[in-house]
Every structure is written in C-alpha cells, then in structure tokens.
Design goal:
57% of the residues lie in helices and 3% in strands. By secondary structure, the chain is mainly alpha-helical. It has a domain of 58 residues: Orthogonal Bundle (Multidrug-efflux Transporter Regulator, Chain: A, Domain 2), CATH 1.10.1660.
C-alpha cells in the first residue's frame, strides 16, 4: 500500500508517518525504485499502537523504547518486565494528571460560585477597594482563579 493510501487508512497524514519513520517507530516494508514508501496492512496496527500510547500521554521516545524491545533477542520475561514497568510509569503519570485536573475543576467551581456572589454585588473592582480583595461582602479573599482578574 502506498504511503498516501496508508496514511488515509491510519487516519493520519504523510508528515506524521515520515516523522515516525525518522524516529524508527515505523518502517516501510519496501521502497520502489522511485523511492515511494510501501506499507503492509498489518503496519496499521503499529500506527494505532503509537496513537493509542500517545493518547495516554506517553512520549514518542518512550514509545520507541517499547517498540524497540521486539528487536531484542533474549529473555522473554525480561522484555515483559520492561513493558510492564513502562506501562505502570504511564499509569502513574495518568493518575497524577487526573488529580491535577480534579484540583483544577475544584478551583473553577469555586470561582463560579464566587462569581454568583459578585453578580449580586454593587461594588465594582477598582483601586479604591483594592480590586475587591478581600471581598467587600464576605470579607474573604477571592479564589486564586479569580484574584488575578480583579
């Protein structure tokens, strides 16, 4: 399959496929005399694996390390251990990111709640009231997500 057809089948573009090739993540099955790249249909699985792992937040460098493991001859259990460790590291990163997103969501919810109070307030943030810091109505500091706006 020519690279253009392969790119469409993989739901990606030529530039991405060439970049994957440059990083040794993907290798054409052959090249024509004119230099055209040809891929096998089964190579779609490799591209989908790369896309899936990237979607999980794994770097192309780490994906390359995983993919290169199949070229290593030797102890199957050692290879499986490396893959398992890599996936556990990624799982830890995802959990950390989920916690960060939960904290961000809580800050946004706090800011939205405060904005409801602000909407009913007759004061306008200005220099005379220290940009509503602290809040004139509640005498509490503004949420960090809002304080930079006032």
């Amino acid at each position: 399959m020519k690279i253009g057809d392969f790119a469409r089948a993989a739901d990606t573009n030529l530039r991405t496929l060439r970049y994957y090739e440059e990083l040794d993540l993907l290798e054409p099955s052959r090249r024509s005399e004119g230099g055209f790249r040809y891929f096998r249909t089964v190579d779609l699985n490799r591209v989908r694996l790369i896309q899936t792992l990237q979607g999980l937040g794994m770097s192309l460098e780490d994906i390359g390390e995983l993919i290169s493991l199949r070229k290593i001859e030797g102890d199957h259990s050692a290879i499986m251990t490396q893959v398992t460790q890599s996936l556990h590291r990624q799982e830890d990163l995802i959990e950390k990111r989920q916690n960060q997103l939960a904290d961000l969501r809580a800050a946004i919810n706090e800011a939205l709640l405060k904005l409801k109070t602000c909407a009913a307030c007759e004061h306008t943030p200005c220099e005379d009231n220290n940009w509503c810091e602290p809040c004139v109505l509640t005498e509490r500091s503004l949420p960090r997500a809002l304080s930079a706006l006032f």
